[in-house]
């Protein structure tokens, strides 16, 4: 009996020590965000909008304004923010938004319970003028869209002629990301989607401008830098572009690897009303492949960019976009920014507004109030 008692107490002590030892380490911001995205995916598809809180078609830089909110009464669940220009130490982004304002609006959206996604279209480090803005350069000279030099990626990698310059650029990005904290110093979690649309060749990191190995090395270089800087609050999104007859092989041909990616996305647009059927068919076919591959690789699928330019088919939201995506378990669909020359989100004065509201009212679309 005594022996049994000693054994039992001993076993209990071992178990309790083991309990302490195995105590779950605190989850990182990235893990928590991923879990949240997965849970929300069961509820519906989040709607997202690029640059939403900065400007709309009839206003700019008013506190708490949003074309989406002005149309349907709620903020988008997801807001997209663009950091192009931060690499130069510029005060404003390539879309003329002050970086201090970007920090503030990211914090605001986080505080109101929203999801943040960040893109970065860094300038071309080989052709950009050192030290200056783009003044004097003619678009696309010096920008992310400048593909006149076909070996930029190779040149910024370790051992390349522009590696040191690019290290400075990555450091400036890192310094900006470090500002994304709550007032009590907590790192804000977000989705980061660098080097996107790499299945096309319009950015200096595009398909015809680097080999598969160079592309992956570019991805790894940036990711390793930010991880070394302590960013455990980043959900990494890899997103090539939508393509006709997408296959799993094609989707993954430059994929950095399961240990390096959390979200798998696609970017796809409709430009003119005549493309409706083709857009719907392609989106459905692409999302089918995207969701299957994501499931197999434990990734979160999303339509990371989409839109119909200037909504020239006003019913687009309810007649085209929603029917093309709603049967797929994607996390979100994000329409691009409302720039005066080119807009992809709704706006109160435009004929598409009631159709946006129709989409908003559906149970399977999620806006800010639905995800809090
Ligand atoms: C493009 C356009 C550009 C913009 C860029 C980065 O699609 O909207 O005007 O500068 O994205 O946001």
TrEMBL record:
Gene Ontology molecular function: mannan endo-1,4-beta-mannosidase activity
UniProt-listed Enzyme Commission number(s): 3.2.1.78
CC terms in the record's Gene Ontology section: extracellular region
Secreted recorded as keyword: yes
Residues of the active site: 197, 305
The UniProt record lists the keyword rRNA-binding: no
Catalytic activity from the UniProt record: Random hydrolysis of (1->4)-beta-D-mannosidic linkages in mannans, galactomannans and glucomannans
Domain of life: Bacteria
Signal peptide positions on this chain: 1-18
Pfam families, A to Z: Glyco_hydro_26
Residues reported to bind substrate: 121, 202, 269
Keywords recorded for this protein, A-Z: Carbohydrate metabolism, Glycosidase, Hydrolase, Secreted, Signal
Family to which the UniProt record says this protein belongs: Belongs to the glycosyl hydrolase 26 family.
Protein name per Swiss-Prot or TrEMBL: Mannan endo-1,4-beta-mannosidase
Annotated source species: Xylanibacter ruminicola
């Amino acid at each position: 009996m005594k022996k049994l008692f000693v054994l039992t107490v001993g076993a209990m002590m071992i178990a309790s020590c083991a309990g302490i030892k195995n105590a779950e380490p605190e989850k990182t911001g990235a893990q928590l965000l991923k879990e949240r995205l997965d849970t929300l995916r069961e509820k519906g598809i989040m709607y997202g909008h690029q640059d939403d809180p900065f400007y709309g078609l009839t206003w700019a830089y008013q506190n708490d304004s949003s074309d989406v909110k002005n149309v349907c009464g709620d903020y988008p669940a997801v807001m997209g923010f663009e950091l192009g220009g931060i690499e130069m130490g510029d005060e404003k982004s390539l879309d003329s938004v002050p970086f201090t304002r970007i920090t503030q609006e990211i914090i605001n959206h986080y505080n109101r319970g929203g999801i943040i996604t960040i893109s970065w279209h860094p300038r071309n480090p080989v052709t950009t003028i050192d030290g200056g803005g783009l003044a004097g350069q003619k678009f696309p000279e010096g920008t992310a869209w400048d593909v006149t030099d076909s070996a930029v990626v190779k040149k910024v990698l370790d051992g390349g002629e522009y590696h040191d310059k690019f290290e400075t650029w990555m450091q400036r990005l890192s310094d900006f990301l470090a500002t994304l904290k709550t007032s009590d110093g907590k790192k804000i979690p977000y989705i980061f989607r660098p080097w996107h649309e790499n299945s096309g060749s319009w950015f200096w990191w595009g398909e015809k401008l680097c080999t598969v190995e160079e592309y992956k090395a570019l991805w790894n270089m940036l990711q390793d830098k930010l991880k070394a800087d302590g960013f455990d609050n980043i959900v990494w999104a890899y997103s090539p572009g939508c393509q006709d007859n997408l296959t799993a092989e094609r989707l993954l041909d430059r994929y950095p690897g399961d240990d390096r990616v959390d979200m798998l996305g696609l970017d796809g647009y409709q430009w003119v009303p005549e493309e409706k059927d083709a857009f719907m068919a392609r989106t459905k076919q692409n999302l089918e492949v995207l969701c299957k591959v994501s499931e197999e690789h434990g990734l979160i699928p999303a339509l990371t960019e989409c839109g119909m330019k200037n909504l020239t088919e006003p019913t687009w939201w309810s007649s085209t976009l929603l029917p093309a995506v709603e049967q797929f378990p994607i996390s979100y669909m994000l329409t691009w920014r409302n720039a005066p020359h080119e807009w992809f989100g709704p706006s109160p004065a435009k004929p598409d507004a009631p159709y946006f509201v129709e989409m908003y009212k559906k149970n399977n679309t999620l806006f800010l109030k639905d995800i809090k």
